[in-house]
UniProtKB/TrEMBL annotation:
Domain of life of the source: Eukaryota
Region (Disordered): 293-315
GO terms under cellular component: membrane
Residues spanning the membrane: 12-34, 46-68, 97-118, 130-152, 178-202, 214-236
Keyword terms of this UniProt record: Membrane, Transmembrane, Transmembrane helix
Entry-linked InterPro entries: Rhodopsin_dom_fungi (IPR049326), SAT4-like (IPR052337)
Listed name of the protein: Uu.00g010990.m01.CDS01
Major subcellular location class: membrane
Rhodopsin domain mapped to chain residues: 30-279
Similarity annotation: Belongs to the SAT4 family.
Membrane topology classification: Multi-pass membrane protein
Amino acid sequence: MPTVPHVDDRNGVIVMTAVFTLLIILAVAFRFYARHLTRAGYGADDWLAAAALFFTLALNGIFLGATIEGAITGHSPVRDGWPVTTPLQIVAQKYKYAFQITEKVVFGLVKLSLLFLWKRLFGSSKPFRIVCRVMIPITVAWTLAFLFTTIFQCGTRWTMNWAPIGIFLTQCIESLNVLTVFSVTDILSDLIIIAMPVPVIWRLHQPTRKKIALTSIFLVGFFTIGAGIARTYMYLVTSYDKEDNPDFIADFTLCILWSEIEANVAMLVCCMPTLAPVIGKFGGRILSSIHTTGSGKGFRLSSGHKRSKATDDGLELPALSNSRRKQSSRLSSDTQLLWQEGHGTVTAAGYANAHGQPSNTPGIMARTDISTTYEVKGSESV
């Protein structure tokens, strides 16, 4: 196996942690704001995301503390191909123990938040509900199994968790094998969870371009899988090839760094599918002054009528029930009617908001009956 490169930029690691911390706080805050905008109500997926945020912030704190003390980006003196025990190595072992316990909770909560979100968005599909009901208890069991295995890896002899490497490896459980299994199953479960909505999306009666756009939102989660693969690779190389990689603290830095990246990216990924209302609100302000796009090219009308449940939950997805498929004439705030000069008659009347009175809401408001020769083109039911 090759010798892995070392990470020595302590200031860069601190800046990275600070940026991640800001981003995940904003992501969860906007998630709850999106629920407020749509009045969809808060669900189990939201509260699980909030709990995951709490533990991810704790994880970032552990990572930042280890970096400030020099345990991350530091180095172990090596003698005869084996790291020499130093006070800094003991400190690194303590941070490693705390980090590995906390990361198990973070990964478990993020996975559960995604599963409950999928169940909320695609719950009208019975086969999909069954898959969710199977994956949720499996994820809970996976999380608890590795959490307690990590906590009691040295039994109740707590000081053994930060003993010199030689003693730790001989007196505690086979931590190398446990972490290998954890890393591999973490990647596999992420792959299953992220890919779950894709078949449902492609069974919808929607244009291919819209299916691709929706699928791309979920496949952003592959960034998390990529970070997990990098973490697993670094772990395998540094743990099973000590002859070429004897610097314990430098190896510890690489493994913890990729776990830190994976945890924070996972937090962002689990919030992204819920942020459409927030993006639409701020994007709508920019576009609200545009009433037409030119003669013959069409324009957009907005309405405050009720939306589908999937839209309330933050995604612009078509309803899956037959009754909603039949509502082809209903206007909603997430429906675009593109009208082009041609043949036929289109009529519409009313205010853009649900109360029938003018308001300061951005968008086009109309009270005038429209009756002219236009052809409806590309109209879809949501």
